[in-house]
Amino acid sequence: MGRPRCLCEICTCGRHRCLHKPTRIYDNGQQPCLTTEYVEKYPKYSNISPPWSFKPKQEYQVHHGKMEGITTFKSDYLPYSIVKQHFQVQEEYKPKTGEIELGTTYQKDYNAHKIEPVTLVRPLERKRTTGGKLDTIPTYQDDYRSWEVQRREATKAVHIYHPPTEKFGNSTTFQDDFVPRELNPRQSFKPPCIAKISDVPFDAATSHRTSYIAHQLEPKFIRPKEEYRPSNQPFVDLTTHRNDFKGLPGELAKSCKPEIAKVGSNARFNGVTEFQDRFQPWLVSLPEVRKIREYVPPPGSIDFNSTSHLDYIKHEISPAFPIRPVSNRRRTNAPFQGSTTTKEDFKAWGTCRQEIIKKQQEIPKPMGKFYDLTTFKSHYIPHQITPTQSFKPVHAIALNSGPFQDATMYHTEYTPKKLEICPANYPSPPGYVYVNTDSHGHKFFRQCTPEFSKSESNPIPKEIAVVS
Question: Are 438 and 444 in contact (CB under 8 A)?
């Protein structure tokens, strides 16, 4: 006979617990209760060590190998051939011989008109002059007389500058401390600018050329276009407004605008205003007209050669395309009447346009036939392409006449287990005798038989048929 066991200890499935009482007034038991909510929800596992961290330790790892002197610049640097830029030498300016026609369209077509002087509307100033003589002595000059004050003699010692006769021979701090040294140029690690030319011929075979297999495409499925079939029913054009609107007679809105009452008078209108009555016109004399000097042309001829005329170089420029959209106007076959008042009254004058001063082209145009042989055509060597062997399996399904082997590891190695019922599932566990219930609510049972016969309490067959 062993010690009495609680229902929590008899349970083998882990789902049965004793009903704990909320309080314990009379505690006669000496065994402490170690069952808590945390112990019930979180069972204790076996001694398992925590997982090791794969994070590296923050320790300085000394590199014991030899340091190479190859840098990224040395390994990746590719020398390029440098071509000097060609500078065009500017030619010496040579003035052209001959005289320039200095006549302009303005000088030829301009007609001088006689201009009359403009009459001033501003009235003349009325200066009031008196016959008396003006006294020009101010009050300051009349009241304040200057005193006779003698000038003080200067007490400053006179220092006359005498330039030195000897040569200046003092050395500076830089000349005393500076020691000239020879310059030692650093060793250059830059590779020489020599391009390595390969002797192996160029292999133009690519993976696309070798692995590409042309497949024949299936004909594209063209969906037939459905014909339009008009509806046999008539179109119902009755809208919601026509269906629901009912014209009911209503009263017209009354205007809140006040009536216009005309204010009239039978008295005769006096056309004289206050401005006309007070401000009378003054007599204004004509201003003096200043005589204009006659124009005297300067002697000699004018040089109209500008920098733009002499140094202008014409460039061939393609005409600009208009951004304005094409107007969709209706065209008529009737002739256009382009006669306007300006065209009829103002006739065009017969003038000759001055020719543009052009500079001769320095680069002559080619006269021979264009030779279209490129560097790629002249240096390209065609090679025969050998297609690579395809290791792709053929899409062919091999049919087997033998029976299908449906044997799996689960089908062969599965062993059925016996179903066991927890003894705490019964009101009184079989093989146990009720002893007592402590103040915590634990029910204690004592085992009657040394072993619990599971075959008697659970009438379940030893073998279970498995459906395959």
Answer: yes
Which residue, chain included where needed, has tokens 């005498």? 162
**Intra-chain end-to-end CA distance of the chain, in Å:** 48
Whole-prediction pTM: 0.21
Rg value, the chain, Cα: 62
Whether the Cβ atoms of residue 433 and residue 426 lie closer than 8 Å to each other: no
Joined together, the tokens standing for residue 466 give 């498995």
Task: Order across the sheet with 443-447: list the strands.
Answer: 5-6, 443-447, 432-437
Q: Is the dihedral of CA 365, 369, 370, 373 positive or negative?
A: negative
On whether the CB atoms of residues 33 and 440 are closer than 8 A, the answer is yes
Is the separation of the CB atoms in 442 and 436 below 8 Å?
A: no
Q: Look up residue 271 and give its amino acid.
A: G
pLDDT in tens, 226-240: 888 888 888 877 888
DSSP conformational letter for 98: S
> Three-class SS of residue 41?
helix
pLDDT digits 0-9 by tens, 120-136? 777 777 666 666 777 77
Maximum separation of any 2 CA atoms in the chain, in Å: 164
> What residue has token string 């400053």?
156
Q: Give me the residues paired with residue 5 across strands.
A: 445
